[in-house]
Amino acid sequence: MIEENGLSILPVNCKKRCHFEFLRRKLMKTKLLITLFLVLGLLTACAEMNPQQPPANMDLALQEAKTKEDHEKLAEHYDEAAQDMREKAQEYAKCLNQYESKSYLYGRQAEDLKAHAQRLVDVYEKAADENSHMARMHRQME
Question: How many angstroms separate the Cα of 29 from the Cα of each of 15, 16, 24, 32, 36?
Answer without folding.
Answer: 21, 20, 9, 5, 11
